[in-house]
From TrEMBL:
It comes from the Bacteria. This is Acetolactate synthase. InterPro entries: DUF6497. It comes from Sulfitobacter pontiacus.
C-alpha cells in the first residue's frame, strides 16, 4: 500500500511502502515510464538537469542510510558531457540543496546520506552493466553535507 506524503514541490508526490524487513522504500510516485509523468527536473552546478528517481531508507548494521537516487543522462559513458570533478560538485549540491531539506520536511534522520547518479532508471540492488553510475556518501554536520570518502 502506498501512502502519499507532501513533497518538495507540488508536482512530486512521494509514497512510503515497505520492501522487506531491513529496507524501507520512500519512492517518488511520478512514473518515468509515462509521458505524462510530472517529475520536476533539478538543475545542478554543472548546468545539467536531472530527476529524482527515488529515496530509500536502508538499515545498514546499526546505521540508517538515506539513499537519494537520481537519473542523470549527462553522465552516460558514450555521450557524457562532464567529468567526475563536475559530477562530484553536483552530488555535494544535491546533498545540501535537496537531501537536507527533504529530511527536514519528512522528519527523517540518518547517519549516512548516499547520493547516486545513473544515466538511466535502474532498479536498486540489481546489476546493470550498461548503466553508468556514480555514488558518494555524506554525513551531516551542522546542517551541511560532509563527504565521507567511503
Amino acid at each position: 500500500m502506498v501512502t502519499d506524503h507532501p513533497s518538495l514541490s507540488a508536482s512530486l508526490p512521494f509514497g512510503l511502502h515497505p520492501a522487506g524487513a531491513a529496507l524501507k522504500w520512500l519512492a517518488v510516485c511520478a512514473a518515468f515510464a509515462t509521458a505524462s509523468a510530472a517529475a520536476q527536473p533539478v538543475e545542478v552546478p554543472s548546468g545539467e538537469s536531472i530527476e529524482l528517481q527515488e529515496v530509500l531508507i536502508d538499515e545498514v548494521g546499526v546505521q540508517t542510510w538515506l539513499r537519494f537516487r537520481f537519473v542523470a543522462p549527462y553522465i552516460a559513458r558514450d555521450t557524457g558531457a562532464v567529468d567526475f570533478a563536475q559530477v562530484g560538485a553536483d552530488m555535494t549540491y544535491l546533498c545540501d540543496a535537496l537531501a537536507i531539506p527533504y529530511m527536514a520536511q519528512h522528519a527523517l534522520d540518518g547517519e549516512v546520506i548516499v547520493i547516486s547518479l545513473a544515466d538511466r532508471v535502474t532498479e536498486f540492488g540489481v546489476s546493470d552493466p550498461d548503466a553508468t553510475q556514480f555514488f558518494e556518501a555524506f554525513r551531516l554536520s551542522n546542517d551541511t553535507c560532509i563527504w565521507e570518502g567511503l
